[in-house]
Design brief:
This protein is α/β, with parallel strands linked by helices. It has a single domain, classed as Rossmann fold (3-Layer(aba) Sandwich). It is built from seven helices and five strands; from the N terminus they run βαβααβαβααβα. Strands 2-3-1-4-5 form a five-stranded parallel sheet. Helix 1 packs across helix 7, helix 3 packs across helix 4 and helix 5 packs across helix 6.
Length: about 180
């Protein structure tokens, strides 16, 4: 992978894999701007993602997400973090790949479950009777898209700093 700063670094992966936490640390360490696509949508719309889902549905949210990804991808020298389902849309993946190196953060369904089980702001998991089974189902459906990333990094049992350091190593051409 090329030297950081030459292009964007894009973090994708399922919810609860650490994209936001790792992205903040990675941007600071690489001295790059952080663009969190979900934050961009919330600022533009003036409401939380969960409110957008509840009021307007997932298709509307995905349209907003596509526009936010288009805007974020037009930037240079940024760490971009996406929502978990962003890469399911081939246009999103293409836009992100055009200006960035895509790193997929991965964790087991059990790790994700532990991280998201008490969250009130995960609309795709709201009101599901078997949360772990829903995590497994969604992860399996999205796995082929996450595998299209330039690299995969495991986050199970690791701190965001440890994950950020591994990504830095990958960006510099080696592993740490």
């Amino acid at each position: 992978m090329p030297t950081p700063g030459a292009e964007n670094v894009v973090l994708v992966g399922f919810m609860g894999t650490g994209k936001s936490s790792v992205g903040r640390i990675l941007a600071r360490r690489l001295r790059l701007r952080l663009i969190d696509v979900d934050d961009l949508i919330e600022r533009t719309e003036g409401r939380r993602i969960s409110e957008i889902f509840a009021a307007d549905g997932e298709p509307h949210f995905r349209r907003l997400e596509k526009e936010a990804i288009r805007r974020a991808s037009a930037e240079k020298g940024a760490v971009i973090t996406t929502g978990g389902g962003a890469v399911v849309d081939p246009e999103n993946l293409g836009a992100l790949r055009a200006t960035g190196r895509i790193i997929s953060l991965q964790a087991t369904p059990e790790t994700v479950y532990q991280r998201v089980r008490s969250s009130k702001h995960r609309p795709l998991l709201a009101n599901k009777p078997d949360l772990l089974e829903e995590v497994r189902r969604l992860m399996a459906a999205r796995a082929p898209y996450y595998q299209q990333a330039d690299a995969q990094v495991r986050t199970d049992g690791r701190t965001p700093l440890q994950v950020a350091r591994e990504i830095e190593g990958l960006l510099r051409g080696g592993r740490r």
